[in-house]
Amino acid sequence: MTTVHGTCLVVASAGLLLRGPSGAGKSDLALRLIHDGSGCLVADDQVCLEATEKGTLRAFPPATLAGRIEVRGIGILAIDHRSCCRVDAVIDLVARDAVERMPEPCHETLLGIALPRFCVHAFDASAPARLVQIARLCLAAHHGEAAHGR
What we know:
This protein is α+β, with helices and mostly antiparallel strands. The chain has one domain (2-147): 3-Layer(aba) Sandwich (Rossmann fold). It has 2 helices and 10 strands, in the order ββαββββββββα. It has helices at 26-35, 127-147, and strands at residues 2-11, 14-19, 39-51, 57-60, 68-71, 75-78, 85-87, 89-93, 106-110, 113-120. The strands form 2 sheets. The chain has an 8-stranded mixed β-sheet with strand order 7-4-3-1-2-8-10-9. It has a two-stranded antiparallel sheet with strand order 5-6. A hairpin with a 3-residue loop joins strand 5 (68-71) and strand 6 (75-78). The longest helix has 21 residues, at 127-147. It starts with a strand and ends with a helix.
């Protein structure tokens, strides 16, 4: 098990791990998805990760931060949350000019588990919709693996 700096939420049944430096928009983007009903918080600021025996990555909040999210300009708020989720993708929040128009597929390996990795600029108006689309892609990939006995 390890703890990483980030935010994790469930979007369209897929677990998304948002990473980026302080001020990159992790909590802000999570809050927008939660507010519009597209997402549910798992962990904010610190995310505990563990590899499962089934070869998946599981995320959960540290006990002291469970059900809390930082809202810049307001403070720490209590919010509904899930106690854990499978992590289906890593989302690195980057500057707008670092987002490639047509990126090649890439992966990130965490605790020995390869996950698809995407770059998103958190403050683009379309960022919440992009995360919904990424979640759908991840779920479609999982369904394809299940159909092929993987």
